[in-house]
Amino acid sequence: MKDEFYKYIQQLQDTITSKLEAVDGQASFQEDLWKRAEGGGGRTRVIENGKVFEKGGVNISAVHGPLPKSMQAYFGVQEADFFACGLSLVLHPKSPMVPTVHANWRYFEMYDTDGKLVDQWFGGGQDLTPYYLFDEDAEHFHSICKHTCDAHHPDFYAAYKEKCDAYFWNSHRNEARGVGGLFFDYCKQTDEMSMQDWYNFVAEVGDSFLEAYVPIVEKRKDLPFDQAQRDWQEIRRGRYVEFNLVHDKGTLFGLRTNGRIESILMSLPPHVQWRYDYHPEAGSEEDRLLRVLQKPKEWVV
Questions:
Q1: DSSP letter, residue 172
Q2: Are the C-beta atoms of residues 259 and 63 closer than 8 Å to each other?
Q3: Active site residue 279
Q4: Which end of the chain has the lower number of beta carbons within 10 A, N or C?
Q5: Res 301 pLDDT > 90
Q6: Which strand (E) or helix (H) includes residue 192?
Q7: What's residue 87's pLDDT?
Q8: How far apart are CA 157 and CA 149, in angstroms?
Q9: Tens of pLDDT along 106-152?
Q10: Can you tell me the distance from the alpha carbon of 288 to that of 130, in angstroms, rounded to the nearest whole number?
Q11: What's residue 76's pLDDT?
Q12: Are 30 and 50 in contact (CB under 8 A)?
């Protein structure tokens, strides 16, 4: 399973980066191959200063070795070895009219001291973070998520949307990071779903990413914007940074397992503002976004 999934994310990285370069039309992804001293490594691809994408990364990794003490406590296990692989991406467009997007699809195995497989699961998801809210964009993104989920189980979309709304919640701000999408974790074999079934589901979600995001980019990338709207984008990016550094489990896992710091923190935007006690004008488009982020919304039925 781990070999099959790692081969899949290698191919998916190629597909996604090729398409994003075509959409940008100016910048290309820089590739770094890296190794982890404890075992494994990855292939990081970063795009910067493009016509469309100000900064973004589409990274894959496959790491293995002894489970660190901090993660033993987190999982509630004793000495163990692990294998983890996945693709993680974040794209920060230049225009405030184009939403930031994040996605991650991953697979994890755990072994006892004799090398016997004792646990395995899939996880992942994708979510959209707009700065100016076009309802039809959120509806499109969620409709693709729902269509993909419905092909595997009628309850998946509702369950994983709810988990996404709960996970990408900046509790210290009492607001959502964005308009959500899907979030699923610890997807293990059951009587209803085999590990191959989970693989098929996660792969189809991964394959649907470009269909969910690229039409939104194409529709919004050439819209005009002014400096005030750019400032608002950078203020909201600050909330994105806060979530990733305070709450995000993937960031914390990478830091606790001696992951490559440049690959872990590639999710952070290049230009950010923090203004003291800033509030947008009541009734403005900026204010409308904040009101939507204060309570998760049903975008499709």
A1: T
A2: yes
A3: no
A4: C
A5: no
A6: none
A7: 97
A8: 5
A9: 999 999 888 899 999 999 999 999 999 999 999 999 999 999 999 99
A10: 12
A11: 77
A12: no
| C-alpha pair distances (Å), 285 with each of 127, 134, 135, 208, 280 | 21, 10, 12, 30, 9
Q: How confident is the model at residue 23 (pLDDT cuts 50, 70, 90)?
A: very high
Give the model confidence (pLDDT) of 80-109 as tens digits: 899 999 999 999 999 999 999 999 999 999
Which position among 64, 92, 102, 271 bears the catalytic label? 102
Query: Which residue in 26, 71, 18, 63 sits closest to 43, CA to CA?
Result: 63
CA angle 9, 15, 19 (to 5 degrees): 145
Strand spans (E) along the chain: 30-35, 40-48, 53-66, 81-93, 100-111, 117-129, 169-170, 175-176, 180-187
Strand order in the sheet with 30-35: 30-35, 40-48, 53-66, 81-93, 100-111, 117-129, 180-187
User: Do strands 117-129 and 53-66 pair parallel, antiparallel, or not at all (unpaired)?
Assistant: unpaired
Residues 6 or more apart in contact with residue 92 via CB below 8 angstroms: 53, 54, 55, 56, 100, 237, 269, 270
- Give the pLDDT band (50/70/90) at residue 73: confident
How far apart CA 163 and CA 149 sit, in angstroms, is 14
